[in-house]
């Protein structure tokens, strides 16, 4: 089993690789800025997309929750 520190490190590495440092930071800020029901959102997610698609879907979902 991986430690929390390793999981965070690997997650940031993947986000940085696929989104770049600026969009990675924006993604993290978007998730942290407002309440986000990850469990509900994840139920509707298809696991066949890229990290970039995953990020875009998360941002769209969050925008819809504001409306």
Q: Write down the domain tally.
A: 1
Structural class assignment: mainly alpha
Main beta sheet: none
Low-pLDDT windows of residues: none
Order of helices and strands: HHH
Share of β-strand residues? under 5%
Protein model, in words:
It is a single chain. The chain has three helices and no strands. It is mainly α and 67 residues long. It has one domain. Helix 1 packs parallel to helix 3. The longest helix is centred in the N-terminal third of the chain and has 30 residues.
Structure, briefly:
78% of the residues lie in helices and 0% in strands.
Layout: helices, strands, pairs:
Blueprint: H1 4-33, H2 38-43, H3 51-66
Key terms:
single chain; about 70 residues; mainly alpha; about 0% strand
